Amino acid sequence: MREQLEKEIVRLKRMVSSLASAVETAVQQAVAAAAGPNSEMAAAVIARDDAIDRTEITIEEECLKILALHQPVAGDLRYIITILKVNGELERIGDLAVNIARHTLDFANRRHEEVPEPVDFTEMVQLVRQMLKRALDALVSRNCLDANEVMRLDGEVDVINRRVIDRAMELIGKYPQNAAYYVDAMFISRHLERIGDCTTNICEDVIYLELGKIVRHSRVEEPE
């Protein structure tokens, strides 16, 4: 029975790794499409969202099956609970990538409009992508210290998001004819900020997995 449980957990790890890779690709392509704007790339991100959703459902079903058939305890139970939570966060990140892609299509449809001062997402995109990659690496290695470092970066993303939104509002007043573009830019900034939040949640799940502690409003250092 124990051997079968271990086999199913290994299979679950592979499924989550595959989902994480698909979601990371979706985020990378969504932000690259927004920088273009590239309508074909944005449409591809949207088209692949159904596959991400199906994988998320399959992983949830597998977790529930393991809980029902094997009734795991201690570390195994924490692992299954963590996977359930991370699975949901990954699906939400995929949805946020789709939202960015949809606003990118709006950009592309208005390419004839000349925007005198485009919004620059470079700093925010680099930071969010770094957070997501490091969070997924921390999950694989079960490294609480790395998870904590990623969580600290979330405050920087919040500051940049506020700065981008304030700048977009200022530019709407300056160029009201381009208001639709700047509204889309604010939504993209907000979606990037939410990806940072979801990434932070994954890091909190890593700490729960390794230490058995629920962390939401504090930071936990890995014991020596």
Automatic annotation (TrEMBL):
<protein>
    <recommendedName>
        <fullName>Phosphate-specific transport system accessory protein PhoU</fullName>
    </recommendedName>
</protein>
<dbReference type="GO" id="GO:0030643">
    <property type="term" value="P:intracellular phosphate ion homeostasis"/>
</dbReference>
<dbReference type="InterPro" id="IPR038078">
    <property type="entry name" value="PhoU-like_sf"/>
</dbReference>
<keyword id="KW-0813">Transport</keyword>
<feature type="domain" description="PhoU">
    <location>
        <begin position="122"/>
        <end position="206"/>
    </location>
</feature>
<comment type="function">
    <text>Plays a role in the regulation of phosphate uptake.</text>
</comment>
<dbReference type="InterPro" id="IPR026022">
    <property type="entry name" value="PhoU_dom"/>
</dbReference>
<dbReference type="InterPro" id="IPR028366">
    <property type="entry name" value="PhoU"/>
</dbReference>
<dbReference type="GO" id="GO:0006817">
    <property type="term" value="P:phosphate ion transport"/>
</dbReference>
<dbReference type="GO" id="GO:0045936">
    <property type="term" value="P:negative regulation of phosphate metabolic process"/>
</dbReference>
<comment type="subunit">
    <text>Homodimer.</text>
</comment>
<comment type="similarity">
    <text>Belongs to the PhoU family.</text>
</comment>
<keyword id="KW-0592">Phosphate transport</keyword>
<keyword id="KW-0963">Cytoplasm</keyword>
<dbReference type="Pfam" id="PF01895">
    <property type="entry name" value="PhoU"/>
</dbReference>
<feature type="domain" description="PhoU">
    <location>
        <begin position="17"/>
        <end position="102"/>
    </location>
</feature>
<dbReference type="GO" id="GO:0005737">
    <property type="term" value="C:cytoplasm"/>
</dbReference>
